[in-house]
Amino acid sequence: MSDLASAIGIRAEEQELVRELKSGSEEAFALLIAQYSQPIYSLIARSLRDPSEAADVTQEVFVKVFRSISGFHGEASLRTWIYRIALHETSNQRRWWNRHKRQELAIDAPVENEEGECTCLAETLAAEDASPFELAMRTETCQRVEAALRELPDAYREVVVLREIEGFGYEEIAEILNVNLGTVKSRLTRGRAALRECLKNKELEHATKTGSTGLIATLEAVI
Hints:
The structure is a single chain. By secondary structure, this protein is an all-alpha fold. The protein has 2 domains: 1-105, RNA polymerase sigma factor, region 2, helix turn helix motif (Rna Polymerase Sigma Factor, Chain: A, Orthogonal Bundle); 107-223, Winged helix-like DNA-binding domain superfamily/Winged helix DNA-binding domain (Arc Repressor Mutant, subunit A), CATH 1.10.10.10. It has helices spanning 2-22, 26-47, 54-68, 78-100, 132-151, 154-165, 170-177, 181-210, 216-222. The protein is globular.
């Protein structure tokens, strides 16, 4: 019963926030940005050819949210609705990039959040008592995971990021992407396999150059 009460409380809180947003409350909009800007920024940065464009796309997402909130009627959760807009804007930006800005970009740099911290699947390896060597290993792992994610097909990357990084449930992902549950599970399975294969290839390439294979098991453990 406590879980049900908590869910009801969250839903009521969300409905109040939506009501205030629709009334044009600047305070409510600031609260919305504070709550969602960082995860939306991280999602977009992982999905673009050029992560430096993520800030502009994130800003455009919240402009769209502000302009469209009057049409939000609660068919999905507010969080789901915002992520759906974010993925749509990201897709638009990728199409623009493909038409106007195709060029070789370095993909080895890690995606950083607005505080300059690297955030990725490899965070699951973090420990408070990590040594400097362990932290360096995890930073390198993070960079390779982020680079590998950008090489996945869009459909696979979206599901992997939403599930493994953002923590959405299968049903929520289906709502965000407007696909059925079976499609979500299939894309996730294939996306994980593709990510694992990409990580292996990158590590083998690295091992060939350096003679080190120490990260293979670490990378596989991440996924």
